[in-house]
Amino acid sequence: QVQLQESGPGLVKPSETLSLTCTVSGGSNSSDFYYWSWIRQPAGKGLEWIGRIYIRGSTNYNPSLKSRVTISVDTSKNQVSLKLSSVTAADTAVYYCARGWAFDIWGQGTMVTVSS
Amino acid sequence: QSALTQPASVSGSPGQSITISCTGTHSDVGGYNYVSWYQQHPGKAPKLMIYDVSNRPSGVSNRFSGSKSDNTASLTISGLQAADEADYYCSSYTRSSTLVFGGGTKLTVL
């Protein structure tokens, strides 16, 4: 059973960089699927697509976040990473990683709070 | 990019059918057959219910169906059950090679 697990600091200070990792386990490798995405959801609000990485290295980002986002993949570790720089309170949310072009499998999500 | 437009809420009684709409533009919903639908129960991660407009992943009940007409996609749930009460989100591929979600619809089973 394929599982995705997000991990990283639950608290980040304003203006710093948020860094999260999504680890793939249970029979699927990060190199098996073409796309891996990051999606976030502020408390009580809707889903926001952050961006995705194509297994051959190209990326697509939400235009509203593009200047601050970097998504990368380490196939040797079966991990997909997210970096979001210059964070503010508006970046406080549950962050999910998801597999494929249609997000057929999701991680459980990790809560990140931006606060001093 | 602008979020796709969904009704904030819909409701129905057990056994009835409901439809949730998802309206975009010719640059997203209307331009591609890459519309997906997700179900999200409180405190849980979203679950894929429909992909590529009308395809159901293995394990998803055939009570869930999807369709599209011009710039509007729709999710229909027939034989409504209490367990269907959840938030539903649509998403679409866009001309800019990005993805965009709808604002979400809260389904209440009366």
Name a few traits of the molecule.
heterodimer; A: 116 residues; 7-stranded mixed beta sheet; 4-stranded antiparallel beta sheet; 0% helix; B: 110 residues; mainly beta; globular
Number of strands of chain A: 11
Distance between the termini of chain A: 39 Å
Order of helices and strands of chain A: EEEEEEEEEEE
The H/E string of chain B reads EEEEEEEEE
Summarize the structure in words.
The complex is a heterodimer of chains A (116) and B (110). In chain A, 0% of the residues lie in helices and 50% in strands. Chain A has strands spanning 3-7, 11-12, 18-25, 35-41, 48-54, 59-61, 69-74, 79-84, 93-99, 105-106, 110-114. The model of chain A has no long low-confidence stretch (mean pLDDT 93). In chain A, the strands form two sheets. In chain A, strands 2, 4, 5, 6, 9, 10 and 11 form a seven-stranded mixed β-sheet that branches. In chain A, strands 1-3-8-7 form a four-stranded antiparallel β-sheet, with no helix packed on it. By secondary structure, chain B is mostly beta strands. Chain B is built from no helices and nine strands. In chain B, strands 1, 3, 4, 7, 8 and 9 form a six-stranded mixed β-sheet that branches. A three-stranded antiparallel β-sheet of chain B has the order 2-6-5, with no helix packed on it. The model of chain B has no long low-confidence stretch (mean pLDDT 97). At the A-B interface, strand 5 and strand 10 of A face strand 7 and strand 8 of B.
